[in-house]
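Q&A log
Question type: sequence-to-structure
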Amino acid sequence: MHIPKYSQIVSPLYLVTRKKNDFHWGPEQQQAFAQIKQEIAHAVALDPVRTGPDVKNVLYSAAGNNGLSWSLWQKVPGETRGRPLGFWS
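Response status: OK
Response body:
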């Protein structure tokens, strides 16, 4: 599954689990926990890679002020939509 901006969403949770920090569950952690649960419930499921002479792989990439990103999709004959294989941002 892919969750956009996962590391940004869960960073408040990681901060309280570091050994050098005291554990304190505050509003910021509660909000991050609620948001990541919501994101998991609506995440895009990634498909397995398929092979064959008619299978097309498409790599989309983008670069902007916020950094780089890419997504890999696969088009299988007889299907109207591509299947997501991977994302990175």
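Response note: The longest strand covers residues 56-64.
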